[in-house]
Amino acid sequence: MRAGFFPFVEPGFEIDMKCLVCGGSGCRVCKQVGWIEVMPGGTPHPNVLRAAGLDPLLWSGFYINIGLDRLVMMRTGVDDVRLFHSADLRFLSQFK
Ligand SMILES: [Zn+2]
Questions:
Q1: Cα–Cα distance, 7 to 87 (Å, whole number)
Q2: Res 95 pLDDT > 90
Q3: Hey, what domains does the chain have and what are their CATH numbers?
Q4: What predicted TM-score, i.e. pTM, was given to this entire model?
């Protein structure tokens, strides 16, 4: 888990995991760094709350995005996320 920057979020964080496609040695899935971001999150920036008509001293929020496609890539070794959106039944049928 590390600090992360996203527009409209303060503070933000990112949860990374070792790339299981390459075992951490580096590949095109992890862009040669050996790890991959799987869960970004944070709380809305106070200006976002003000823009929504909310007092940031009274209101807050929290979001987390679970990268299901990336987690499935790590579990199955699929090395191209575009395959999940390809509608190629030969590919998709392996996940019955
Ligand atoms: Zn990798």
A1: 32
A2: no
A3: 2-95 (3.30.930.10)
A4: 0.73
